[in-house]
Amino acid sequence: MLTIDKYAYQNRLIDWSPRLKGLLWLIGMVLAFQPIQLIKVALIIGVAGWTLYVARMSFHQYIKWFYAILPFILLSIIGIIFTMSSDPHAIYYPVRLFGNYFGVSVACYRRGCG
Fold first, then answer.
1. Among 13, 14, 39, 104, which is least packed by CB within 10 angstroms?
2. Distance (Å, rounded) from C-alpha 91 to C-alpha 73?
3. Which tops the pLDDT comparison, 41 or 6?
4. Residues 6+ apart with CB under 8 A from 51
5. What does the pLDDT look like over 69-107, one tens digit per residue?
């Protein structure tokens, strides 16, 4: 049996109604798409803690699940934060590169990149 299957079949929610699980998922999705950043941070922390409790797993095992996607997350963050522009005033601390300017976008810095 795979490790993830063990957590799926031996967790604390095994006897819960599928409708209740679906309702909790729906509430979580609605909260995740709210524009308030504090709600999103609280949801991430809450879901991580709840997962550790429900699945009876260690924090180390939980983090190991993210090793495969970590490079994609880091590359995405770099791609969102840094940008190139032909206008040096649109970039904080512009670095000239291939005839354009590379750096953190002024718009991204002021409004947030999310």
1. 14
2. 23
3. 41
4. 57, 62
5. 989 989 988 887 888 888 888 888 889 988 899 988 777
- Residue 92 CA to residue 84 CA, distance in Å, equals 11
Give the residue from 65, 67, 68 showing the smallest Cα distance to 7.
Answer: 65
Domain positions in the chain: 1-65, 69-114
Residue 30: pLDDT over 90: yes
What contacts 112, CB < 8 A, 6 or more positions away?
37
Cα angle: 59, vertex 69, 42; to 5 degrees: 55
Instruction: Detail the DSSP E strand segments found in 10-113.
Output: 82-85, 91-97, 100-105
Name beta bridge partners: 91.
105
Examine the pLDDT at 111 and tell me if it is beyond 60. no
